[in-house]
UniProtKB/TrEMBL annotation:
Residues 9-243 form the ABC transporter domain. PANTHER family: AMINO ACID IMPORT ATP-BINDING PROTEIN, GLUTAMATE_ASPARTATE IMPORT ATP-BINDING PROTEIN GLTL. Its main location: membrane. It is found in: Cell membrane. Belongs to the ABC transporter superfamily. This is Amino acid ABC transporter ATP-binding protein. GO terms for molecular function: ATP binding. Keywords: Amino-acid transport, ATP-binding, Cell membrane, Membrane, Nucleotide-binding, Transport. The keyword ATP-binding applies. It is a peripheral membrane protein.
Amino acid sequence: MTTARPPLIELAGVNKHFGELHVLQDIDLVVGRGEVVVVIGPSGSGKSTLCRAINRLETVESGRISIDGRPMPQEGRALAALRAEVGMVFQSFNLFAHRTVLDNVTLAQTKVRRRSRADAERRGLDLLDRVGLAALADRYPAQLSGGQQQRVAIARALAMDPKALLFDEPTSALDPETITEVLDVMRGLARDGMTMVVVTHEMGFARASADRVVFMADGRIVEDRPPEEFFAAPRSARARDFLAKILQH
Ligand SMILES: Nc1ncnc2c1ncn2[C@@H]1O[C@H](COP(=O)(O)OP(=O)(O)OP(=O)(O)O)[C@@H](O)[C@H]1O
Ligand SMILES: [Mg+2]
């Protein structure tokens, strides 16, 4: 599906294998600036690999991946710079356990963005405020709930001023009562125009905040449509089966 907005993330003809397994098969995907794309599909369909390929955490064998019109470099300094433009939020928050919350959101700013410590702290506190955690800046990750830790991880990603954010099942490790607070932050980002690719089983988020739903199965994009169309009438048998299963929960 094409998008009316200027493209920010573009994949064309992307292929990847893990040994015999063809995990990404001829993937074409364009994410427009400010667009929110939710990626769903059965376990093993390639959703995480897709996210990781966009950020070059995985190499691909063929095809093009570009961010804001520039191809993703293979390695080196250019890769580090471009990777900083696409933030990633994982299921496991990956915070630095022995650093305070504020340090977690300032370290990469001083190292990668070369900001002064004072500037980085100012920006870090603003972002912690935005995710509702300014009061907890001096705590350590282990002293926070899972939902709070995930909000710190989002603030840390935002601190790099990324052009886009990738989320890989950001709420699936959380207790039900803290899922909402993370989804609220994500809904706010979507409203503010952040470009987002979100792998999630939260269909409420997909319905309310996604511009498009991408349904993957067996390494392919099977459907790529607005959520209201996709949920009302999935075209493929694979998507109908998948929805029937997850909506039973
Ligand atoms: N590093 C790896 N080496 C070998 N196989 C891998 C590797 N990473 C993923 N795979 C395999 O590739 C396929 C796609 O994995 P991927 O993690 O992208 O799926 P997914 O759609 O994110 O699944 P889930 O919903 O369970 O997170 C799976 O069959 C997985 O076992
Ligand atoms: Mg996954």
